[in-house]
Amino acid sequence: MSTLTIHGTLDVAQFWPRGNSDADTAKVSLAGVTNPFRFKPDGAKEIVTRAFATATVRSAQGTTAVVKNGTIDVRLQGIGAPELHYQPQRFRQPFGESAAAALGALLATGGQPALPCRVVTRVAAPNEVCDLFGRVVGEIIVRLGQRSVNLNAWVAKEGWAFPAFYTSMTADEIARYTRLTEAARKAKKHLWQAGAYTPQIGPFDAALREHKPGSAPAPDAGPVIWPKYFRRLVEWKLDAKSAAPTLKAWLAGRATERFVPAGDFAAQGAAAKPRSLADGLDAADRMTLEPRDFVVVEKPSTLYAADGKTKIIAW
């Protein structure tokens, strides 16, 4: 296992309501940073890597450059904030706006329009750095006054996001974010307050859409469901060809997304048997497991060099 650290700056104004970023994704600028990508194998010295400067990610979603106009997109590992603007019609969930606004307010305490930051990810190979959308998956660490703040951990412990685990994570990382989100749940913070989170999927409220930047956050009235199932709920409701009577039935017919129960993943790792996402629901579309119990199977992508033909397999 190795550590990739990416040095850059975080534009504070990008987060809703000043901008469009939500509480679990961000854009990090690499402009003006010399050698932003730095790789450190365990037990060895840190070295500069240029493997990602002109790299592209190819997946079922298409081909995407890792660095776009001097900027990388980052998916905050371990957490899933309520949706702020899920396509194609920019549907949102309760708490999506206030979660993004809270993160923006935290960063504003740094007193600068852009904050120096580090994106840190623990991986075994270059191909594990990005998801199928070309986003770097990792933790963002910023300096606020005299303290360094891990934004992923802050969002989790403040109760602004659900646990969101993938098989690309280590068991230790999953355990850490489980502790953070469970502490927020015990304290009944935000998503975990009475009347907010519910394991019952649906009904779908198509009237909830993203408000334009500059708006005040919508009142945080629940219920709010785990975002992974919210996204699939939207797709089911918009699927004009589907006659499935429940989300569970619709998911069973697709069988494209799978998960491993967290206990199995902790005990068996990659050898654990995956299940259909449909298996996490009962016949009435109620979750039979807690969000912390899902470790979603990360869909594969391939990292290519600038020529679009050579696979990047070395740092």
Concise description?
The chain has 315 residues and is α+β, with helices and mostly antiparallel strands. 20% of the residues lie in helices and 25% in strands.
Structural summary, described in words:
- The protein has helices spanning 96-108, 151-157, 171-186, 227-238, 247-254, 262-268, and strands spanning 2-11, 25-29, 37-41, 47-48, 56-59, 62-65, 71-76, 78-80, 114-123, 136-144, 147-150, 162-166, 258-261, 275-276, 294-296, 302-304.
- The protein is α+β, with helices and mostly antiparallel strands and 315 residues long.
- Strands 1-2-7-10-9 form a 5-stranded mixed β-barrel. It has a 5-stranded mixed sheet with strand order 8-12-15-13-14.
- Strand 3 (37-41) and strand 4 form a beta hairpin.
Give the helix/strand layout.
Layout: E1 2-11, E2 25-29, E3 37-41, E4 47-48, E5 56-59, E6 62-65, E7 71-76, E8 78-80, H1 96-108, E9 114-123, E10 136-144, E11 147-150, H2 151-157, E12 162-166, H3 171-186, H4 227-238, H5 247-254, E13 258-261, H6 262-268, E14 275-276, E15 294-296, E16 302-304
Parallel strand pairs: 7-10, 12-15
Antiparallel strand pairs: 1-2, 1-3, 1-9, 2-7, 3-4, 5-6, 5-16, 8-12, 9-10, 10-11, 13-14, 13-15
| CATH top level label | Mainly Beta
Give the overall shape, derived from the CA principal axes: globular
CATH architecture: Beta Barrel
Overall number of strands: 16
Question: What is the radius of gyration computed over CA atoms, rounded to a whole number of angstroms?
Answer: 19 Å
The major pleated sheet works out as: 5 strands, mixed, barrel
